[in-house]
Amino acid sequence: MGNLLTPKVFFPRVVVAAALAALPVLATPSTVFADGAADEADLHFEIGADAYVKGDFRTALEHFLTSNRLVANRNVVFNIARTYEQLKRYADAYRYYVDALEGETNPQTMATIQDAIKRIGPNVAVLRVESNPPGATIYLERKDLGSRGRAPKPLAVPEGKYKVIVELPGYDPVVLEDVAAKIGSETRVSPALKRIVGTVSVAVEGAPGAAVHVDDEQAPPTCTAPCTFDIPPGQHLLYFSREGFQAAPRQVMVVAKETVKALAKLSPLTGTVVVQADERDAIVEIDGKASGFTPAVIQNVAVGQRKVSVTLRGYAPIEKTVDVKANQQSQLLDLRLVPLRQVAAASRFTENVEDAPSSVTVIDAQEIRAFGYPTLLGGIARNTRCIAVQRQDVCISDNPRLG
After folding, report:
1. Cβ contact 168:192 at 8 Å
2. Mean per-residue pLDDT over the chain, rounded
3. Which residue(s) pair with 351 in the sheet?
4. Backbone torsions φ then ψ of 85, nearest 5 degrees
5. DSSP labels, 30-45
6. What's the first-to-final CA gap in the chain, in angstroms?
């Protein structure tokens, strides 16, 4: 009549030991449950075991099923399968053998169950349901008959044609009609489930584009806005990123098979640039745009490498590159403007002093301030060999220092 497995969750009563005396036992009890349900389940198992030994398989099946319903136990499931096999209800036996194998770790018990499945295989038709993605609930014919488990799973059925229904939360259900099952063979059923989604359409302003991150600011970008993408229905939080810019997250409520719109409003990250020079009122330009006069504190400068130019008439321009960081101050201090030593009197167009066709002396503002010259002729002329005043050549020959 085959072997029975003693459930591991009950102490065997005397009647169990007597009933199984003639049968090899593949497992022994190891855990005690003291509540009423466990005691009742234990009793039903003992009655079922007695009936099985006596060949009263219908009674044995009734009590094994009741015992497993009260306290689920893999070994009792094996006994249910064994009893179905004795009743020649091979499809039911196959199903319970498969259930008994799930989660089993004992090599000897696994081998026993696998041998039983192989033994009754020629007597059953098997539908092997493997959903994509896995984990879908399987129904045959009608949902009100209850599920047959979760894919992937082999289902033993009588020969015939079946309606296979698979459902998975977040996906459209799939119904396969007239799936043929033949005795002694296995029919593979591999339904592909289509995800239930809504669509998010993201526009962007303030910059050419922005990476879109869904529900986690550190998640890989889903797309680069402007873009559209599909996503499961429900509430989602969209984050946007672009180097040098910032944008507030957007919350969207996605509805199945509908489109919701979102707008990424980008604004530049900015810092402050401080510019000081040895001359006042020099023009400060940032990336070619006039932004102030020295000394200058220029706010709301976009972050990144910026070109700063400082210009003043009569002086050589200064160009610097500054790295502007968000919410920080970048400084260009103690800039020294060098006077341009250019004249137009000698050749009537502006040229460097060194290139002029005649001897030229240039007295710049720094020299005037340094020596404290009171007047043009009374100060500058005394220290200069020849100067041009009102288109007349004035030569100070009585200056003993100049000869």
Report:
1. no
2. 83
3. 343
4. -60, -40
5. -----SHHHHHHHHHH
6. 140
Domains of the chain: 1-122 (1.25.40.10), 124-195 (2.60.40.1120), 198-266 (2.60.40.1120), 270-335 (2.60.40.1120), 343-395 (no CATH)
Supply the DSSP string of 151-172, one letter for each residue.
SSEEEEE-SEEEEEEEE-TTB-
Reported pTM: 0.54
Buried b (16+ CB within 10 A) or exposed e, 51-62: bbbeeebebbbb
Instruction: Report how far residue 95's alpha carbon sits from residue 111's, in angstroms, rounded to the nearest whole number.
Output: 17
Please give the Cα distance from 231 to 195 (Å, whole number).
9
Tell me the residue type at 180. A
For the stretch 254-283, pLDDT in tens is 999 999 999 999 998 999 999 999 999 999
Q: Nearest CA to 213 among 250, 163, 253?
A: 250
**Residue 29: exposure state from Cβ atoms within 10 A (0-12, 13-18, ≥19):** middle
What does the pLDDT look like over 3-17, one tens digit per residue? 666 654 333 333 333
Per-residue pLDDT, 394: 47
pLDDT digits (tens, 9 = 90+) for 176-218: 999 999 999 999 999 999 999 999 999 999 999 999 999 999 9
From CA 345, how far away is CA 273, in angstroms rounded?
40
Residue in this structure with the two tokens 């810019």, named with its chain if needed: 245
CB atoms within 10 A of CB 151: 24
